[in-house]
Amino acid sequence: MTTDTTTPEDGTPADRAAPAAGAVESTPPAPAAVTAVDPRLLVRQQGFRGYAEEFRRKLRSGELGSLPVVVGLIAIGIVFQLQDSAFLGAENLSNLFVTSAGTGLIAVGIVFVLILGEIDLSVGSVSGLAAAVFAVLTINNGVPEGLALLLAVLTGTVIGAVHGFFFARIGVPAFVVTLAGLLGWNGLMLQVLGTNGTINLDDSGLVAKLTNHYFGDVAAAYGLALLSVAAFFLFSWRDSRRREAAGVPSRPLSEIALRTAALAVPAFVVAWLLNQYKGLPLALVIFLGVVVALDFVLRRTSYGRKVFALGGSVEAARRAGINVALVRMSVFALAGTMAAVGGMFLASQINAANQGSGAGSLLMNCIAAAVIGGTSLFGGRGSTWSALLGVLVIQSIASGMALLGINAAVQYMITGAVLLAAVVIDSVSRRTQKTAGRA
């Protein structure tokens, strides 16, 4: 007699039917199976050889980071130092840092806009208008300098918010809105300055001290270097401990110590050089403070992550629940604020507000600084440190040219070539990352 071993529904043999309720079915791993290991852990386990291979892999996949601009800075330093030994002298480097502050602060705001994948063409005019507002309030109307400075900076904030409103709420392209701002705010600046066209500031006033004040005590420069190095070590170590506790790849103490040493050497060399001239410039302290603070905002806060998300994909950010219009308006308001702050530093350099404030090559230098430093014109990638590195490249070229007596025409051509090279590197890097599946 034959026993039926199939179910009436699908014909599956009874001895291969699903297990009874409550039974747990597990498949043992294959004898030769290997547990997957995070590649970053393997890199650290292999020591310097692992890091060398990881560095080559990043180069092949287009993950260049700040390498091109750092190499460029070193090359610029070597070339101009060979031509004139005063280039890396204490006085020239101190002046270079001071003159970089105004343009660099404006470039920091541009970084946020570029991360969105947009552009702001009005920052030059906004910086000039802010300087004019400050000069009229404090010199012509006797408003206290502190209050006048606050109102001038808020002028930039309001202007940026207006640009952001037309862009985010009305839908006017940012290029058109800010191009209109470039023309309109420049005209308003001329109107505010009046027929005289120039208003000289108080030589001993608050704004004048922004670029003219130095901390002469040698402890100031060395103290800032020590504080920077110590803060870098502590934050790196704390981040490593948190990652280790969470069970994700973290840097070993030896790597953190090596990175700290790599930062300490140039930091203390620069401090020594600054002390050979007038000491630590106040402008450099403020510039570095702003860069560090906004870098924290960009990389360590939910707001910063929203900015990067918009730069990556607006539609994806919207579906993730991000208020796209609000973030866009805030970014343009921030750019306007930084333009006004930078305008105060630029006015401090000449100790006046005049019809040429915010004009000339300022706008192009600010955008070029952000791009040369590593911020992508395509959005989604950038850092406030890009503004610092990029403006150092531009000001180093200008300083070296001035020492050699080369006219401004050649300087513009070289700066343009450097900007083109930065954009080409960015484009090639993005294409390489897409090919490698990392974009």
Determine the structural class based on helices, strands and strand pairing. Answer: mainly alpha
Helix share, percent? over 70%
Residue-averaged pLDDT: 85
Predict the CATH topology of the domain at 65-216 and 278-427.
ABC transporter involved in vitamin B12 uptake, BtuC
Poorly predicted regions are 1-24, 33-38
Strand order of the largest sheet: 1-4
Question: What can you tell me about this protein's structure?
Answer:
The protein has 439 residues and is mostly helical. It has a domain at 65-216 and 278-427: ABC transporter involved in vitamin B12 uptake, BtuC, CATH 1.10.3470. It has helices spanning 39-45, 48-60, 67-83, 90-115, 123-140, 145-170, 174-193, 206-212, 218-245, 253-275, 282-300, 302-312, 314-319, 324-350, 362-372, 384-404, 408-435; strands at residues 198-200, 214-215, 280-281, 352-354. The protein has a two-stranded antiparallel sheet. The chain has a two-stranded antiparallel sheet with strand order 2-3. Helix 4 crosses helix 15. The termini are far apart.
Explain briefly what this protein structure is.
This protein has helices at residues 39-45, 48-60, 67-83, 90-115, 123-140, 145-170, 174-193, 206-212, 218-245, 253-275, 282-300, 302-312, 314-319, 324-350, 362-372, 384-404, 408-435, and strands spanning 198-200, 214-215, 280-281, 352-354. The protein is mainly α. A two-stranded antiparallel sheet has the order 1-4. A two-stranded antiparallel ribbon has the order 2-3.
